[in-house]
Amino acid sequence: MFLSFTREILGEGGGSPPSNKSARRRRQITFRSFLEAIAVALLIALVLRVWVVSGYSISSGSMKDTILVGDFVVVDKLVYRFWEPERGDVVLFKYPHQDNRMNPLKWLAELAMKMVGKQVPIRRDMVKRIIGLPGEEVLIEDGVIYIDQKALDEPYLKNPPDYTWGPKRVPAGSYFVLGDNRSESDDSHRWGFVPGELIVGRIELIFWSWMPGRCNEQVLRLKSGASEKLLLLPCGGELCVVGEEIGKTQLSDAELESTKNLYICDRCGRIYRHWWDGSNAPSWQFWERIRYSRIGMVVE
Known about the structure:
Helices cover 22% and strands 26% of the residues. It is of the alpha+beta class and 300 residues long.
């Protein structure tokens, strides 16, 4: 009995401790299992983002005051696989007048072009509200929208359109969409209808919101107080979304790789790549730019 106990301690017989080889093998299996778990998680996340739900940041003021610049919204991509779009839905869609065809080879080719510093076609995703359904006649007159000669009630609207459009009938399988900021929105009244197959999904809620910054360009400003003085101070103008035609007059082609995040000061005209570049608040004081009241707000 004593001899058998001694053999077990010394590693002889059936009770020998594992060798370095078996320990290394167990570590390899654990590392492989870890990589497999990461791969499965990434695959599930990719499937959810492509076909089910995804996040989208708002860089245009065309939907204010329903959705503001700096809002981050949740897009339900599954809903229109089972139901037809309805009037009043706020939807994300691909701009109709661009090449929306995409395949893996084309995606890889454009990725390679980006890596070597070459420009690729800019594709625009837009957020608007569905107003006209397939087969309906739409007329916009005196700030009122008429659907089949009946005035449309829009309780969400704060900025009625200041233009006249129509009457025109919405083609089959297409939709007439407008931004809630009617007179300053690039939408169907300018470029036409949206085919149903270009609608990506419905905007459901706002999950995060940043307050746009203000211009920090140093300009001569009159400081009022006990004695008025002309001082070099931050401009303080509001940053607004820049149209592509405006940006091209002030930026080179290399700087125009993407125009969706270009902002212009409404006071001094300075161009910013991102609105947070112009915030007067220090970058570490991020909480000062959070719109807490908008987080979790349902988009209607």
